[in-house]
Design brief:
Layout: E1 6-9, E2 13-17, H1 25-31, H2 51-59, E3 66-70
Antiparallel strand pairs: 1-2, 2-3
Length: 78
């Protein structure tokens, strides 16, 4: 069965979670439980920790199911 990636954003980054690639969701939930919560939906809350901590955890994802990119900042025109 094919599932769609889950996409979560805050003001700084967008995190994508591919459930088909995930082999160990508990890894993230144990290391950064305020962001990766396996008992609630949506299970990723990007307001649960500073962006730098979230990026560090995403980079540690053992299966590559998590990825991120920086959001483009709008340039203000005066």
């Amino acid at each position: 069965m094919k599932t769609k990636d889950n996409v979560f954003s805050n003001s700084d980054i967008t995190v994508t979670y591919n459930p088909c690639a995930c082999t160990h969701a508990d890894h993230c939930a144990k290391e950064l439980s305020n962001v990766f919560q396996n008992s609630v939906i949506p299970w990723i809350d990007l307001e649960g920790a500073p962006t730098k901590k979230i990026i560090r955890q995403v980079k540690k994802c053992p299966s590559g199911a998590l990825s991120f990119h920086y959001n483009k900042k709008e340039k203000k025109v005066a």
